[in-house]
Predict the structure.
Amino acid sequence: MLIMFPPYFLYVIYIHVKDVINNLENENSINKSVKKIVPDITLKDENAIVKLVLKTENLLFIQSADNYVEVNFLENGVLSKSLLRNSIKKLEPTFINTPIIRCHRSFIVNTKNIELTKKTASGFNLKLNQVSELIIPVSKSYISEFTKFTKKS
C-alpha cells in the first residue's frame, strides 16, 4: 500500500492543478472578451445626476443648445431625443476611448454611424445613417481629430 499511495497521490494532485489552470485560462479569456465589448455611456446633468445610459452604438449625435444638450439616439430602432441640462464641453470627457468625437463647437458625433462625408470650403459635412435630413458640420478646428478617427474606422 505504501508503494501505491505516492504515485496515486501525485497523479490526483497533477489532475487537480491542471483543472485549476484550465479554469483560470477560461476565466481570463472570458474577461478579455468582456473588455472588448463597447461599454455603456452614462450621461449626467450639470448636478452629476445620471439622466441617460446608452449603448455606444445607439448614440447618433449630440447637439448643443445653449445650457442644454440634445442627445439623439436609437431606442428600439427608432430615433429618440433627450434634453439634458449640461454643456457639451462638460460631456466631452465622457467619450474618451470611444468612437464618439466632437466635430464642431455645437456637435458631438458617433463616427460609427457616418454614412457620407463631404468636403466643403469650411471643413466637412457629415450625413448619418439614420438621420438623412440633418447635415452635421465638421469645423476646421476639429478636422485633425476627425480625420484620425475616420482613418481608424
